[in-house]
Amino acid sequence: MSNNPPPTPTSAHILGVRVDDVTLDEALSWAERAIQSGAPRQVATVNVEFVMAARGDGEFRRVLAGSALCVPDSAGIMWAARTLGRPLRERIPGVEMAQGLAALAAQRGYGLYLLGAAPGVAEQAAAKLREAHPALRIAGTYAGSPAAAEEAEIVARIRQAAPQILLVAYGAPKQELWISRNMHRLGVPVLMGVGGTLDYLAGVVKRAPAAWRRLGLEWLYRLYRQPWRWRRMLSLPHFAWRVLVARLGRAEEERC
Question: What is the pLDDT of residues 56-75, one digit of tens each?
């Protein structure tokens, strides 16, 4: 096992939140290096909701700042980076990062543990991943919850399973805070919060068609399929306004 840490990518900062300029291939290469080094490292999939939540939640902001890798998850983040003059090369949706990690695990013989989502969903997601990657070793699945009272039991389960990759589906920011609190006693090199990804992988929730994703309209498709999300979508115009204000402020500074 190598003691060399994975390389640190260059980054953009979106309203105070770091987002790393990596492609999916580079992120997976980074993950492999992280596994080889053995030390625990947290991966965050940064989207607009993350940025807006971090503005009002100091602990969440601290966890994102301390994450070893922050990949650009959403079209809104890509737009903001371009608008602020620091474009990012590739969007990496959390579901595609999770699928890539599963493929890496199958190729290298790493164990993958799926934690969270509704009861039974992690097991369904594991079965779908095995269909795609027959060599994949699922180290374990468990729904559990992010409640502090359950942490000791969940940590014991994961330590016994000894995976190299842990995907946690408790929703943001609970999953990121849970990982940050527990990563140093889990013994897992790569840990990532995945939100609703296990629902997508299990087929419980349908992902937006490819054409919608190419146009950056996955958020609109999710709103169409899950109209109860409308309150969460209110962060989008607020985010866009904040980014434009930041861009105008930067332009003013450049003129002075």
Answer: 999 999 999 999 999 999 99
